TrEMBL record:
<keyword id="KW-0378">Hydrolase</keyword>
<feature type="domain" description="AB hydrolase-1">
    <location>
        <begin position="30"/>
        <end position="254"/>
    </location>
</feature>
<dbReference type="Pfam" id="PF12697">
    <property type="entry name" value="Abhydrolase_6"/>
</dbReference>
<dbReference type="GO" id="GO:0016787">
    <property type="term" value="F:hydrolase activity"/>
</dbReference>
<dbReference type="InterPro" id="IPR029058">
    <property type="entry name" value="AB_hydrolase_fold"/>
</dbReference>
<protein>
    <submittedName>
        <fullName>Alpha/beta hydrolase</fullName>
    </submittedName>
</protein>
<dbReference type="InterPro" id="IPR000073">
    <property type="entry name" value="AB_hydrolase_1"/>
</dbReference>
Amino acid sequence: MERTIQKKLPVGGDSWVTVDVYGEPDAPGLVVVPGVMSDASTWRQVAGAIDAWPSVVVVNRRGRAPSGPLTTSYSLRTEVEDLGAVLGEFDSTRALFGWSYGGLITLLTANDRPIPQVIAYEPVMRPFGQQALPDLRNAAESADWDRCVEIVNRQISGFSAAHVEDLRADGVAWAILRRLSGPLYAELGALNAAPPPDVMARQADQVDLIIGQRNRGTAPYGVSFDTVRQHIAHVRVHELPGQGHLAHVQAPAQLGHLLNNLAAL
């Protein structure tokens, strides 16, 4: 479906979030919550491939333009409250979908309020990427965004040096990654500072977790996925064939097709 509007919503701490709305703005739909190193624009192809809901609302979380700043009081709880504000605006939401850090946010939000369905792609939780925090802090304090991109790919995601150089060779893609690395240190710090919850998605009627086939049982994403799964009482697990953590970039149509299928289950 096509994007129809973009809305700006006030949230706490003198900040705001924008949302990109696809389809019918007033119809029941799916709310998408991206994770770190991602924004609403990087999910437009996935949103365009979804047709199982009358509307798709993609949240542009605070810390990335045109949304507002993280603010000094930023925490994981801030993200949950921001998503609550989005759900207050789109009160006919039928399902939440979160990717990575966004998956954790959606699962925790479903502790606060009833949600018919929560879907999370490789959600992460504490401890995740803690070893990279000192280097990320140094890079962020010196505004060395090239270094931030290197750290997240090498020290956290575990990609090779050759992979990073391939990314760097694409000047447009590298510029996007540099821009998205601005809030990375604060977000990863907030993720690891939050006490681990005893239960997630307590008020969700249905929970679906997705893992990329290439990450099954492997660090870091497969290991964190298994940890999250232990905190959910009733969950269905689905595997996306041939994919890893970046399916929204590398196979958006395939991911959109899976989400359509999950809506019908």
